[in-house]
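Technical note accompanying the year-one report. For the benefit of new consortium partners, we illustrate the data format agreed upon in the data management plan: each record pairs a sequence with a structure-token string. No post-processing was applied to the example shown here.
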Amino acid sequence: MTEEYKVEMTGRVFFIRLPDRSKAYLRYHIENGKLFLDATYTPENWRGRGLAKKLVEYALNYAKEKGLKIAPICSYSVHYFIKNPDKRDMLAEEYRNIDLQKYFEERLAAEKSKEG
């Protein structure tokens, strides 16, 4: 479904250019050996096609290449690790043994409070 979409990156964003010229993106930063997944966005009419998942998986591969651990900050990235427990070895130490479902709900609430 998303195979034809290529992930590109800048110093702060992994992104996919979409045919309508919009972009799906994953904003990140690197600090202390960790790749922080700060914010994920997919334009509304492109949601449900696996684009955010593709971006997170690209970020995981990038982190693996660079020897970085993952700090999931945005709710989607936390959700990804809930759905893919086999990838949790990529998490930074402080995220490995926490209740990811509870953390997901906290992140989601924080994001919703910023929207208002």
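Partners are asked to follow this layout when depositing records. Residues 7-115 form a domain with the Aminopeptidase fold (CATH 3.40.630.30).
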